[in-house]
């Protein structure tokens, strides 16, 4: 008996086939067509085709008994009344709402009210502000419906217009305390809750449509679990549903998270807090992680150097420029949508290896800022579990451990969010009594090395960070 996981990120479609006895059977990743998709905007139907194709390639004619969906925590799609998209899917990287953001931030009382209602900063990351910008740009909303990207895919697969509360918590449209759409926030857009998907949980499954079943090569009518966000699934897949275990995922973007039993919202805006699976998740996040790595390889090095070549050159470098990883704007800790990134303290001797190492260091330093911020509120974790594309690079993983000064428990599988979705699918089939019964993958421990060099470099990073605020 197998379950199929379909996951959509900002850069690729992913599928995972999991057998109850054997574990992970196969995986498939299909990068999005770059002519139709960017980090900030994706073509909904192209993304849907990609994830279904990824699923077909590993699930066709297999004994799949359930499907679970996973998506990003921050996306919004505008559809007509027949649920046909009339906009791209806007992600956390879409920053055109900066004028609306700046206007709201002038009103400190309103800024605080929105933060305490939603657990979300007033920032372009969130779909609420994207919709505000679209409305101000002339888009008519009266005859429109709205969905997350993964919610749209779920509708395509089941014909049901539903969303998990956890996914919608990442739009800043949800009241983090009631776990319902916030009437005041909807009124700011002139919208009704009925224009969004009905809120459900992983306990509510819906049957797979025959045409999609035929496309995947599986049985029609099998249960499909509503889409949950990758950050919430990371907590499940990393075995971090108990307080005190921090997860850190570093992929296209990066985040640090704690599971908490009630909303954890500081008086002054700093960290975020969203609805999780059965509780809440408090954390900090950055936009510039793998996205900055891809930017450097593609735009500066013209895509001509492999990761192996770059890492080999970087490993021998000691002198590096300072890199501020805000090429795609800043989330934590400063939440400046329009902040610029780049290199500082560049010297004549700095070559591509120096720049690559400096970029990786800058991302680690930004994560250290987030770590300091989050632990000042939630306390030090007893354990940090690392996942995401970073674990494919022992060099970068060791660097992160050294910069944080903390041991890291590194998963053997880089897609912890997909494993979290496996738990939801098994629960839907009655194979788990509770999600915490899911057996997570084993971990390799990476120990930090004492490094005065990184301490000095972090001081240089903070100097340029503060000087360019």
> Beta fraction of the residues?
15-25%
Query: And the CATH topology of the domain at 2-231?
Result: Nucleotidyltransferase, domain 5
Number of strands: 23
Class of secondary structure makeup? alpha+beta
CATH class of the domain at 2-231: Alpha Beta
Q: Note the total helix count.
A: 15
Mean of pLDDT: 96
Give the neighbour order of strands across the main sheet.
17-18-16-15-21-22-23
Give the uncertain stretches in residue-range form. none
Helix content: 25-40%
The CATH homologous superfamily of the domain at 2-231 = ATPase, nucleotide binding domain
Rg (CA only): 21 Å
Termini separation comes to: 54 Å
Q: In this structure, how is the largest beta sheet organized?
A: 7 strands, mixed
Describe the structure.
It is built from 15 helices and 23 strands. Strands 17-18-16-15-21-22-23 form a seven-stranded mixed sheet. It comes from uncultured spirochete.
Give the topology.
Elements: E1 2-8, E2 12-19, E3 23-31, E4 41-42, H1 44-59, E5 64-71, E6 75-79, E7 89-91, H2 98-105, H3 108-118, H4 127-136, E8 145-147, H5 149-158, E9 162-164, H6 165-169, E10 174-175, E11 180-181, H7 183-189, E12 198-200, E13 206-207, H8 210-216, E14 223-229, H9 230-237, E15 245-250, E16 254-260, E17 272-275, E18 280-286, H10 290-300, H11 307-315, E19 322-324, E20 342-344, H12 352-378, E21 383-387, H13 394-404, E22 408-411, H14 416-428, E23 443-446, H15 452-467
Parallel strand pairs: 1-5, 5-14, 9-12, 15-21, 21-22
Antiparallel strand pairs: 1-2, 2-3, 4-7, 6-7, 6-8, 10-11, 13-14, 15-16, 16-18, 17-18, 19-20, 22-23
Helix pairs in contact: 9-14, 11-12, 12-13
């Amino acid at each position: 008996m197998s379950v199929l996981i379909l996951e959509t990120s900002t850069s690729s479609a992913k599928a995972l086939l999991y057998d109850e006895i054997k574990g992970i059977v196969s995986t498939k990743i299909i990068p999005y067509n770059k002519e139709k998709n960017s980090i900030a905007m994706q073509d909904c139907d192209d993304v849907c085709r990609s994830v279904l194709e990824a699923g077909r390639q590993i699930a066709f004619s297999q004994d799949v008994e359930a499907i679970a969906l996973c998506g990003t925590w921050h996306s919004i799609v505008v559809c007509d009344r027949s649920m046909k998209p009339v906009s791209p899917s806007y992600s956390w990287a879409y920053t055109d709402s900066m004028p609306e953001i700046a206007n709201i931030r002038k009103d400190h009382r309103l800024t605080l009210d929105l933060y305490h209602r939603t657990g979300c900063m007033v920032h372009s990351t969130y779909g609420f502000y994207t919709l505000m910008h679209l409305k101000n740009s002339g888009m008519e909303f009266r005859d429109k419906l709205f969905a997350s990207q993964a919610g749209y895919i779920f509708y395509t697969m089941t014909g049901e217009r539903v969303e998990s509360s956890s996914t919608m918590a990442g739009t800043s449209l949800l009241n983090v305390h009631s776990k319902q759409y916030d009437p005041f926030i909807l009124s700011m857009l002139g919208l009704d809750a009925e224009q969004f998907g009905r809120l459900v949980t992983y306990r509510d499954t819906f049957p797979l449509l025959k045409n999609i079943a035929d496309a995947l090569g599986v049985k029609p009518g099998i249960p499909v679990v509503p889409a949950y966000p990758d950050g919430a699934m990371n907590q499940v897949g990393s075995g971090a549903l108990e307080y005190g275990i921090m997860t850190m995922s570093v992929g296209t973007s990066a985040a640090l998270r704690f599971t908490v039993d009630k909303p954890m919202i500081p008086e002054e805006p700093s960290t975020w807090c969203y609805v999780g699976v059965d509780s809440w998740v408090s954390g900090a996040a950055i936009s510039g992680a793998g996205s900055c790595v891809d930017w450097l390889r593609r735009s500066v090095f013209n895509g001509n150097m492999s990761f192996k070549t770059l890492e080999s050159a970087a490993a021998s470098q000691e002198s590096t420029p300072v890199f501020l990883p805000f090429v795609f704007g800043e989330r934590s800790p400063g939440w400046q949508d329009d902040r610029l990134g780049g290199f500082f303290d560049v010297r004549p001797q700095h070559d591509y290896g120096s720049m690559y190492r400096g970029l990786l260091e800058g991302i680690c330093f930004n994560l250290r800022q987030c770590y300091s911020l989050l632990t000042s509120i939630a306390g030090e974790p007893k354990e940090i579990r690392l996942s995401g594309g970073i674990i494919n690079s022992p060099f970068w993983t060791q660097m992160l451990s050294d910069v944080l000064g903390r041991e890291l428990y590194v998963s053997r599988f880089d897609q912890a969010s997909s494993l979290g979705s496996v738990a939801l699918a098994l629960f839907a089939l009655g194979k788990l009594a509770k999600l915490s019964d899911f057996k997570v993958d084993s971990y390799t421990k990476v120990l930090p090395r004492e490094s005065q060099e990184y301490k000095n470099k972090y001081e240089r990073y903070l100097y340029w960070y503060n000087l360019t605020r």
